Amino acid sequence: MTRPLLQVREVSRWFGGLRAVDNVSFDLHEGEILGLIGPNGAGKTTMFETISGFHRPTAGTITFDGRDITGQPPHRLARMGIGRTFQIVQPFRDVSVLENVVAGVVGPNKPVSDARGQARAVLERVKLDHRASILARNLALPEKKRLEVARALATRPRVLLLDEVMAGLTPAEIDEIMEILAGLRREGIALLIVEHVMRAIMSLSDRIVVMASGRKIAEGVPAVVAANDKVIEAYLGRRNTHAPA
Ligand SMILES: Nc1ncnc2c1ncn2[C@@H]1O[C@H](COP(=O)(O)OP(=O)(O)OP(=O)(O)O)[C@@H](O)[C@H]1O
Predict the structure, then answer these.
(1) Residue 118 above 80 pLDDT?
(2) Residue 85: which pLDDT band, with cuts at 50, 70 and 90?
(3) Would you state the pLDDT for residue 191?
(4) Residue of minimum CA distance from atom 10 in ligand 1
(5) Locate the ABC transporter domain: which residues (predicted)?
(6) 41 pocket-lining for ligand 1 (C-beta < 6 Å)
(7) Is 135 within the bounds of a domain?
(8) CATH code at 71?
(9) What is the residue with the minimal CA distance to atom 4 of ligand 1?
């Protein structure tokens, strides 16, 4: 296998005495989908925020394309090729869907010729081109989720971090977004997905990392992880409703 695009090495993030992320390591390769799962409070969001630069790790290193990016701020990481979505969808509500994506294509101090054409191409990839001219606030939830992915894609990421983009969607809407994410993998984008929708994560992910109480408790292909005793115990022990099927 090629050198990992993203390497997380012995990363910890503590809040006072609470070890929200405790000595976690994993790799993400080009064109790979890695699922990050675990019961509520496992540390998934904290790990995600640490990789995307919103939290500084208490210890450990994060490398992107062979370069140490530990502690870099989000805007610099975005410019390097690490894109992310937000759990709470937050488009500019009062501008059009297209202009929302144009803002990502252009970015601060980044003039781009034909930004609108590029934004349209991004909207096609998330099957939202037919909604380009309406105000973002008028989109239905599944469309808002796809716009969130489009805004992240507009920055031309090589790694895309997706935070619960399937939450609140119907099974049919989940199928649709799964198809879009599989398409991004075919383009060679590496995806790190934090998600509670087990059906989706199990069928989409090439590999899965499982966290519980801040630690990595398992890693591997979906079928192996789902049968792992520690994983089953971590979910059942917390009476979590999102256990792997
Ligand atoms: N900013 C913060 N300050 C203090 N504690 C925090 C902070 N953010 C998270 N925590 C704590 O860190 C632990 C891990 O939380 P985190 O949100 O990362 O888990 P999670 O796996 O994403 O959970 P969920 O699936 O419920 O979103 C929890 O005990 C949480 O209360």
Answers:
(1) yes
(2) confident
(3) 97
(4) 20
(5) 6-238
(6) yes
(7) no
(8) 3.40.50.300
(9) 15
